[in-house]
Each structure stands twice: as structure tokens, then as C-alpha cells.
């Protein structure tokens, strides 16, 4: 008898969970924006401002541009795609996944970031890295995965430009995206890494070490383009327009992005 | 604290348990009592998700559920929307990757019933269905209970497969494990720590509850 009460309460608990979750799904109609990891903090702030100004909400999914492009091809229900590299947008557009060719919204920069107490200096010329490598003092150096993450590709180009790509090979640790690379660089287990300027400028990361810009002509420009996907609805359109508004541009500038001319 | 993600994880776990309870009862009982050609192969297939790396398994599921696959195309034609990157896709993936956690303990539960007990039930004129309900299920209950709790707890914690098949869509496929990963990526260590603690607490309570329940059942049966 007592057993059947316990059994009933287990069933009731499952039913309650299922019910509450169904109610929850009704309120989740806000469009999903797939945004490159370097936008982590900037876009979160812009989405917040958008909500305050318009009362409308978007849901943010952060990750690597290459991963998002693949997921969009598999049918992921994103309505806006904000890539860190316009090449991915062009390919999606060519294959008919996007509404148009989209708009350039920012040009990103990369920085050397070293954690507090690292034996490396944060210098954009990478001289300190070169010296530490020669002295065998590097154990780990973090970049985003150059196979699919645009910031990783630019980091590789910069390292190749400096002639450090080959000697650095045994010490590289690759993040799945630039945010994870930053995580690795600041974990205390690496001497540093090459990450997005926009992440280095965020208050959370700024306190954890120092950074210095890598010369912009050492790598191809990080031309960041966004686009509305085929299934974009009115809220997604409104957010897309808002990205080009003065308030959003101001936030982007604060995170170190170079903005395209009006 | 991302309540949406937590509630989504609980919902996913509840659905997985609800679907796998009858499956593990039937499959576990079948594997426990019957011997047939290729039984070893079936048992190996059931165990496969346990040893495959989640990303490998997730990749296969992504391909198998994708819109170009027969399963994906069938789903699209039947329900008018795709299977990958949806909650339904997650449930299906979750059912598959939990097969070993559900079927194995259930099978052990049924195996523990002495064959004399089942023979006695049948000699007393009990129909197989009545014997199942009156004799076997009460005896195999600890095994089934373990199966369901493992499935529940394992679903809450699964990460790689969920990320591959689900993406990370807030309110649809971003489970608590993925929300924690996202928070760590966002350098929001505080939220990640809180969510992790909540997840640990829920798992602990779930497992403790099982031990408590099976102890009670054990006392009642002995």
C-alpha cells in the first residue's frame, strides 16, 4: 500500500515536470540569432538595449562561425547569422540559404592576450613570444581552431607572417571558438594566446591580464558580415535593422570593432 | 541560473524515461529469458552507445536524422518540420544513447528471478501477462528502478550528443549541461558554478531517492 503511494508520487512528479515544460515552450517564440563568439559580450549588450527600446526579444546562440554555417546547412532554425568572416555568408548565399548577401557590420581585430603573472609580454609585434620560444620557455599558447574559426585563421596568418607558426606548433592549444581560446589563454596553464580584441576589452577579461593589438596588415581583414536567413520573421528583421542603428554601433565601437562607413 | 535550460533538461529526461520504461521492460525481459542465434550481437548493439565517444555517436545521429537521410525525410513528410535541432530530435537521440543504461539493469533484474518462481506461477495457472504483473515486475522492480534513475541522471548530464544533434537553441535544445558550457565560454564563472551545483544536487537527490526506495522494496519483499 505504502509502495503504491511512492509509485504514484513518482508518476505525479514526472507529470508535473512535463506539464511545466510545455507551458514554458509557448513563450519561446523569440527568433534565434547565431552569433560568432567574438560578439559574446557586444551582442548580449545590444540585445539588451533592443529589448529595452522595442520590448522585443531575441535569443542568442554563440559559437564558431564555421560550426554555425554547417548547422545552417543541416537546417538549424536560426533567423539571423552574424559571422566573423564574410566568406561563410557568401557561400551560404550562393547555395540559397540566405535571403540576400547581407551587410558588413564590423571589422574585427586580433590581440595578443597574456594572463597576469605570465612570463610573456603582451606585445603585438610578437617579439616577446619569439624570444620565449627561442629560450624554450613556452609550454602552451592558445588560438581558436584555424580549421573553422575565423579568428583562428587570422591568428594563424599573423603567426605565419611573424615566422612563428612552425616553431609554435608543438605548443599550440586550439579552442573550438575564439571564446574558448581566450579561456585557455587565461586559464593559467598557458603563457597566453591570440584572441579577439572585442573579448579582450570586455570587463570580465580585461582584469585578467593585458593585451596588445597585432598589426592589422599582418593578416587578412576580419570582415564580419551578417545576414537574414530564409525563415526570418519581423522581430529578426527589426533586430537586423537595429544592429545598424546608432545605439548598436556605439556599443560595437566600445568593444573595439572598426565599423563600416555609412 | 538558467531555469529554462534546467526545465528543458528535466523535460527531456522525463520523456526519455517514459519512452524507455516499456522498452527496457520488454527488451530486458526478452534478453534475460531467451537465448537465440545472434543474441550476443544484439547485446553488443545495445551496449554500443556506452563505449562510443559522444561526439562520434552524435555525428552519426546528426547524419542519420538529417534532412537528407530516410529518417529525416520521413519525419519532415510526417510532421512538416525537421528532426535535427528540435526537441523531438533530442528525445529520439536521448532514447538511443540511453539504451544501455535502461536495458542492462532491467535485464539483470529479470535474470535475478529464479526460474522456479516463474514455473510455479505458470503451474498455478497464471497467464503470462498476470505472471508478469503479479510476480515478475515486483521482483525485477529494483533493476527497472535502477534503469530509470540511471537514464534520468545520464540524460541530465549528456553533453556531446545533445550539442551535435541539438545545436544550442535557447528554450528548445539548450539543456542545462550546454548552458553551463556556454556560461563558461562567456566567462560567467559564477552562473556556471551555481548551475553546476544545482545539477549535482539534483543528481544526488535522484540517486539517493532510488537507494531509499529500493531499500524499502527490499524490506517489503523479504
From TrEMBL, chain B:
It holds the Pfam family BPD_transp_1. It is a multi-pass membrane protein. The chain crosses the membrane at residues 12-32, 44-63, 83-103, 192-213. GO terms for molecular function: molybdate ion transmembrane transporter activity. This is Molybdenum transport system permease. Residues 6-210 form the ABC transmembrane type-1 domain. Its main location: membrane. Keywords: Cell inner membrane, Cell membrane, Membrane, Molybdenum, Transmembrane, Transmembrane helix, Transport. InterPro entries: MetI-like, MetI-like_sf, ModB_ABC. NCBIfam families: modB_ABC. Part of the binding-protein-dependent transport system for molybdenum; probably responsible for the translocation of the substrate across the membrane. PROSITE patterns: ABC_TM1. PANTHER family: MOLYBDENUM TRANSPORT SYSTEM PERMEASE (PTHR30183:SF8), MOLYBDENUM TRANSPORT SYSTEM PERMEASE PROTEIN MODB (PTHR30183). Belongs to the binding-protein-dependent transport system permease family. CysTW subfamily. It is found in: Cell inner membrane; Cell membrane. One of its GO terms (cellular component) is plasma membrane.
Amino acid at each position: 500500500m505504502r509502495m503504491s503511494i511512492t509509485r504514484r508520487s513518482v508518476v505525479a512528479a514526472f507529470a508535473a515536470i512535463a506539464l511545466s515544460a510545455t507551458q514554458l515552450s509557448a513563450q519561446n517564440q523569440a527568433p534565434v540569432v547565431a552569433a560568432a563568439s567574438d560578439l559574446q559580450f557586444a551582442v548580449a549588450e545590444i540585445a539588451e538595449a533592443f529589448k529595452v527600446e522595442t520590448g522585443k526579444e531575441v535569443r542568442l546562440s554563440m559559437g564558431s562561425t564555421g560550426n554555425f554555417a554547417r548547422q545552417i546547412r543541416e537546417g538549424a532554425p536560426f533567423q539571423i547569422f552574424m559571422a566573423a568572416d564574410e566568406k561563410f555568408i557568401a557561400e551560404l548565399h550562393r547555395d540559397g540559404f540566405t535571403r540576400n548577401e547581407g551587410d558588413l557590420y564590423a571589422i574585427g581585430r586580433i590581440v595578443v592576450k597574456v594572463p597576469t603573472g605570465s612570463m610573456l609580454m603582451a606585445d603585438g609585434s610578437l617579439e616577446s613570444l619569439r624570444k620565449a620560444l627561442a629560450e624554450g620557455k613556452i609550454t602552451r599558447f592558445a588560438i581558436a581552431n584555424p580549421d573553422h574559426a575565423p579568428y583562428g585563421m587570422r591568428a594563424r596568418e599573423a603567426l605565419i607572417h611573424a615566422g612563428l607558426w612552425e616553431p609554435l606548433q608543438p605548443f599550440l592549444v586550439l579552442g573550438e571558438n575564439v571564446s574558448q581560446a581566450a579561456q585557455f589563454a587565461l586559464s593559467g596553464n598557458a603563457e597566453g594566446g591570440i584572441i579577439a580584441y572585442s573579448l579582450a576589452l570586455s570587463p570580465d577579461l580585461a582584469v585578467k591580464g593585458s593585451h596588445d593589438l597585432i598589426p592589422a596588415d599582418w593578416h587578412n581583414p576580419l570582415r564580419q558580415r551578417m545576414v537574414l536567413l530564409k525563415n526570418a520573421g519581423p522581430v529578426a528583421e527589426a533586430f537586423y535593422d537595429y544592429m545598424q542603428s546608432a545605439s548598436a554601433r556605439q556599443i560595437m565601437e566600445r568593444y573595439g570593432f572598426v565599423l563600416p562607413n555609412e | 541560473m538558467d531555469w529554462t535550460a534546467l526545465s528543458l533538461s528535466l523535460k527531456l529526461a522525463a520523456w526519455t524515461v517514459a519512452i524507455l520504461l516499456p522498452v527496457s521492460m520488454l527488451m530486458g525481459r526478452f534478453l534475460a529469458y531467451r537465448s537465440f542465434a545472434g543474441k550476443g550481437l544484439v547485446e553488443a548493439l545495445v551496449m554500443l552507445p556506452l563505449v562510443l565517444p559522444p561526439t562520434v555517436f552524435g555525428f552519426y545521429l546528426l547524419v542519420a536524422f538529417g534532412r537528407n537521410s530516410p529518417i529525416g525525410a520521413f519525419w519532415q513528410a510526417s510532421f512538416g518540420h525537421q528532426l535535427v535541432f528540435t526537441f523531438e530530435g533530442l528525445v529520439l537521440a536521448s532514447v538511443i544513447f540511453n539504451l544501455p543504461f535502461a536495458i542492462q539493469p532491467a535485464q539483470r533484474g529479470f535474470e535475478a528471478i529464479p526460474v522456479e518462481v516463474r514455473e510455479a506461477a505458470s503451474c498455478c495457472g497464471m497467464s503470462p501477462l498476470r505472471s508478469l504483473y503479479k510476480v515478475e515486475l515486483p521482483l525485477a522492480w529494483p533493476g527497472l528502478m535502477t534503469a530509470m534513475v540511471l537514464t534520468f541522471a545520464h540524460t541530465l548530464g549528456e553533453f556531446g550528443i545533445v550539442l551535435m544533434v541539438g545545436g544550442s537553441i535557447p528554450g528548445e535544445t539548450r539543456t542545462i549541461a550546454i548552458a553551463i558550457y556556454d556560461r563558461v565560454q562567456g566567462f560567467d564563472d559564477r552562473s556556471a558554478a551555481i548551475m553546476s551545483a544545482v545539477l549535482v544536487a539534483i543528481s544526488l537527490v535522484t540517486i539517493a531517492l532510488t537507494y531509499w526506495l529500493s531499500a524499502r522494496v527490499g524490506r517489503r519483499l523479504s
